[in-house]
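chain below, 394 aa
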Amino acid sequence: MPCNLAVRMFSDLVTQLDNLKSKGLYRCRLTSESPQGTHVSIAGCQYLAFCSNDYLGLANHPDLINEARKGARKYGVGTGSSHLISGHYVPHQDLEDRLAHFTGFPRALLFSTGYMANTGIISALVSHRGEIFADKLNHASLNDAALLSRAKFIRYPHLDLAELERRLAASQAKQKLVATDAVFSMDGDIAPIIELAMLCDKYDAWLLIDDAHGFGVLGKQGRGSLSHSNAISPRIIYMATLGKAAGVSGAFVAAQTEIIETLIQRAHSYIYTTAMPALLACTLLKSLTLIQQEEWRRERLAQLITQLRTELKPLRWKLLQSTTAIQPLIIGDNSQALRISKALQVRGILIPAIRPPTVPRGTARLRISLSALHKEDDITQLATVLYELSIEIK
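prediction:
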């Protein structure tokens, strides 16, 4: 009996997987053989890559590699414990202090990933008696965190502040939190942070900003989306990741001291996990210096974004309105998006086909992401191939 039951369970999984394949929703991994960069090696083949979040081109920077080596020699490769036991090292504290100052907050707190940071923030601040208001296109980590908190979860239409205000005005909850991406990871547009902060002031709510794709890229010296929008409010809880523009790994939360202390005491994803290796904190301290000092990287990225939008404008596929390094080309049909992505790969270009549930149904797309290390010829090559495919693929 148990054996027959197991056979049926595996059969159900196979059926579900086959169903994903038939709908063009099956996902496959590529295994890289080279460092992160604008050109990568996969299965012995070289590709021009437009699929990385390494927006400033720091992931393979020699200065960062050198800092990682020095950090490993001094602190080893593992911390052996959580931050609250014996895993909190001098580089961790130095990095938290630097990040707080850089983003303009009293305190900052390191997390191992952005997913863990969002989970920790929301579950620590909002209980089943609270309400969470989230943009419909928020990252999955914010949605999962809201569900885990057991609070009432209210999703408002993308960037619809009128609907958000209507829902906030109707709320009787004592705990209220508005959560939003700053730069939306699949559309590349930017949330109206000042207006959101004003609504949170009016209706006594926290405002959680997930700036995974803005930190290092937007604002003065790359200080992020709050700097870009000139938004200041003690209600803001700012989360950013350190594995995208910063080029390394991890995440941090910056906020008022009371918030950070609450997270240290109550955020399970902080308390019950081993601290990131100290060598990574050493590396990130150097990364933060480069982010501040090398303005040319952001200037270069802005030039490439303008070039890409100009060269792709005549395409029959729609390029969404975005001024960020994320440039989504809407294809619509899942299978066609996959077909175009595979055809690009055959021609030596890597761009992922993004499909539901990551994006809404009917909006499958190529997510083109740019790096400061791309060259003008790279953009022209991409545009030329896309034009050829637009004629070939109907």
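The chain has a mean pLDDT of 95. Residues 62-293 form a domain with the Aspartate Aminotransferase; domain 2 fold (CATH 3.40.640.10).
thats it, cya
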